[in-house]
Amino acid sequence: QTIQAMAREAAAAEPTVSTNTDPAGGSGGDDSDSTVGPADEGGCDSEPASAPALCEFADVETLELLSARLLNTMATRVVQGGLQPSDAMAEVRGLLSEKLSSAKKGPRGLAVLHARLEKLEARRSFGGRFVSNAADKVAGKARELEVRGEYRHGGRQRLALQLVQRYDTTREWHCGCDMEQLGSTERERHLTSCVFRPVGCSHAGCTALFSARYEAAHDGSCEFKVVRCALGCKESLPRRDMEAHVAGPCAMRPAECPFRALGCLAPGLVQGEVASHLEEARDAHLQLAMARLLQQDQELSELRQAMTEMRAAAETTAATSASAAASTIAGLQKKIAALEAGQAAAQAAAKKSAAQAKDTTAALATRLAKLERERG
Which residues contact 212 (CB under 8 A, 6 or more apart)? Predict the structure, then answer.
């Protein structure tokens, strides 16, 4: 209702030329000769005199995105173009009166509008070329402008609607139906059936607003819509809670029998049937438990036997190793004794040889002295 009222205000606020007055939605062809009345540059809420009676509905998301783009464009022109906010507004409003090309090639429709906005944003004053942190300053200026009356959301939405009506010549993003060609009953029917009319989500908690043509698509994905459990239990809950439900308390969540480790496979068991399964299969589970206990007793017995055998083998090995070690030690002791005896004999022989060498040296010295005396 807010958007509808806003659109009606826009129709009363600006003269708009529709290139198609066919209520059935046919194309009006070339709009190169289309003209509009002079645009008041005082702000988004300016009010020229008259307007044709066209359907005022347009795609809600397109208007929202274009409204944000207009704010960014004006903020950019103020920060990097050196303009006053009112002059930036006048530039944007000037797009309402720019001629549309009749060329068959090149951008068409809203692509032309966005190209012209981009061209505006690219203009730089000399000082604007040296602005540091331009993106942050543009964002700050946008926030500053947004709280001013003529640049607020509602005013920008009205300007966005006028621009869509001007540039969307194929009526892809707005209705533009000539309401004057409809009777009062048809007019009321159109207002409640137009695919571009804004509608709000009917599911509790969801605040989404969109054009009626997207209602089915939104309904198919709305996180707040209450739906039946995906696994088929009797629960109904918001779609956004479904993942946690099927992974947790859902009675139809696939489950395993607590005795699965003992051999109970219970194919197709779900969480809601676990309690009844445990009751019905109680005897079978007891048999599986007894079988597992017997098996464990057998395994323990085998382990004890294996440990006894290993201990005996270790003791035998230890005894054998001790005997071999004693024999080795005795042999080494004999070798050491033999070496020590040989060393003693060698020392005695060395002493004897040293004594003989001493005696021989003394005898030679005596003989040498005798010979020297005889020569003298």
Answer: 193, 194, 195, 196, 197, 198, 199
Number of neighbouring beta carbons within 10 Å of residue 196: 23
Q: Which helix (H) or strand (E) holds 78?
A: helix 60-81
Report the Cα 59 to chain-centroid distance in Å: 29
pLDDT of residue 359 exceeding 90: no
* Dihedrals phi, psi of 192, to nearest 5 degrees: -105, 0
- Distance between terminal CA atoms of the chain? 158
Does the reported pTM lie above 0.70? no
Q: What are phi and psi of 170, to 5 degrees?
A: -90, 0
Nearest Cα neighbor of 91 from 114, 116, 68 is: 116
Residue 235 CA to residue 119 CA, distance in Å, equals 55
In this structure, of 128-132, 148-152, 187-191, 285-289, the range with the lowest mean pLDDT score is 148-152
- Average pLDDT over the chain reads 83
Round to whole Å and give the CA distance between 14 and 326: 118
> Burial of 79 by CB count in 10 Å (0-12 exposed, 13-18 middle, 19+ buried)?
buried
